[in-house]
Amino acid sequence: MQRLVEQLKLEASVERIKVSQAEAELQQYCMQNACKNALLVGVPAGSNPFREPRSCILL
């Protein structure tokens, strides 16, 4: 019970904001950082660690 009370006190002290405000801030953050998102922009071919290795054809 003591742990439960301590957890409830901790949760009660957390500052809360409205969902609409959190959504607006999250959307703004996503729009500001979209140019850095590799899923949206893509990864440059030279720095992609998952690209297929090239084989030597000089044999």
Relative strand content: under 5%
Summarize the helix and strand pattern as letters: HHH
Which secondary-structure class do the elements indicate? mainly alpha
Based on Cα principal axes, name the global outline.
Answer: elongated
The tally of helices reads: 3
- What is the distance, rounded to the nearest whole angstrom, between the alpha carbons of the first and last residues? 74 Å
Rg calc: 24 Å
Query: Which percent range fits the helix content?
Result: 40-55%
- Low-pLDDT segments: none
Average pLDDT over all residues: 87
Describe the sheet with the most strands.
none
Strand segment tally: 0
Subunit structure: G proteins are composed of 3 units; alpha, beta and gamma.
Protein name: Guanine nucleotide-binding protein subunit gamma
Membrane topology: Lipid-anchor
GO cellular component, one term: heterotrimeric G-protein complex
Explain this structure to me?
The chain has 59 residues and is mainly alpha-helical. It has a domain at 15-40. 49% of the residues lie in helices and 0% in strands. It has three helices and no strands. The chain has helices at residues 2-12, 19-32, 38-41. The longest helix has 14 residues, at 19-32. The protein is elongated. One of its GO terms (cellular component) is heterotrimeric G-protein complex. Belongs to the G protein gamma family.
